[in-house]
């Protein structure tokens, strides 16, 4: 039973780490990256629709992205959604068949702001991990009547090691993203 609870903890913590990495990917660096638009929703006929369902994204140059919509009538909506996207700072241009996005060069001040933003996202991810840890610890405490005290203590130690390993993964991803942001 304890093994099942710990397996559940591992699965949930792995998902939290992946969500944190995806969240880090939405913060732009000096390069254009299609993952920046991973969570962008476009108002398509009154329905918020993910950009990946409406268009293909190409990255022909380091600071340029080309968005080619599958339906040309969505071109204006895609352009507006990109323009309204926070923390992007790019002005998309529409030539009638595709949207071209040229990313401006990041200033040192803007890079530092993005580092702060990524650190905040990292702390939020760690809080999610600790929340999962707390829930799993409660699940272990609920098993106290069914299994021995020694097994519960052993399970809690394994849970702490698991939590630390996942926090370290988030720290590593955070360190990698900070280095990417500060790279000129």
TrEMBL record:
<comment type="similarity">
    <text>Belongs to the RRF family.</text>
</comment>
<dbReference type="InterPro" id="IPR002661">
    <property type="entry name" value="Ribosome_recyc_fac"/>
</dbReference>
<dbReference type="InterPro" id="IPR023584">
    <property type="entry name" value="Ribosome_recyc_fac_dom"/>
</dbReference>
<keyword id="KW-0648">Protein biosynthesis</keyword>
<dbReference type="InterPro" id="IPR036191">
    <property type="entry name" value="RRF_sf"/>
</dbReference>
<keyword id="KW-0963">Cytoplasm</keyword>
<comment type="function">
    <text>Responsible for the release of ribosomes from messenger RNA at the termination of protein biosynthesis. May increase the efficiency of translation by recycling ribosomes from one round of translation to another.</text>
</comment>
<dbReference type="Pfam" id="PF01765">
    <property type="entry name" value="RRF"/>
</dbReference>
<feature type="domain" description="Ribosome recycling factor">
    <location>
        <begin position="21"/>
        <end position="182"/>
    </location>
</feature>
<protein>
    <recommendedName>
        <fullName>Ribosome-recycling factor</fullName>
    </recommendedName>
</protein>
């Amino acid at each position: 039973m304890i093994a099942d609870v710990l397996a559940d903890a591992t699965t949930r913590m792995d998902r939290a780490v992946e969500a944190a990495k995806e969240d880090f990917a939405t913060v732009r660096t000096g390069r254009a990256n299609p993952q920046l638009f991973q969570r962008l929703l476009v108002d398509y006929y009154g329905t918020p629709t993910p950009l990946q369902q409406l268009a293909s994204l190409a990255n022909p140059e380091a600071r340029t992205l080309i968005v080619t919509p599958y339906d040309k009538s969505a071109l204006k909506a895609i352009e507006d959604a990109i323009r309204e996207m926070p923390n992007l700072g790019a002005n998309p241009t529409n030539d009638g068949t595709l949207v071209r996005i040229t990313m401006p060069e990041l200033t040192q001040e803007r890079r530092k702001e993005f580092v702060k933003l990524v650190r905040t996202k990292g702390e939020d991810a760690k809080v999610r991990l600790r929340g999962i840890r707390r829930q799993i610890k409660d699940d272990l405490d609920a098993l106290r009547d069914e299994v021995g005290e020694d097994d519960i203590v052993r399970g809690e130690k394994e849970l702490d090691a698991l939590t630390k390993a996942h926090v370290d993964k988030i720290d590593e991803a955070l360190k990698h993203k900070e280095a990417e942001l500060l790279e000129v």
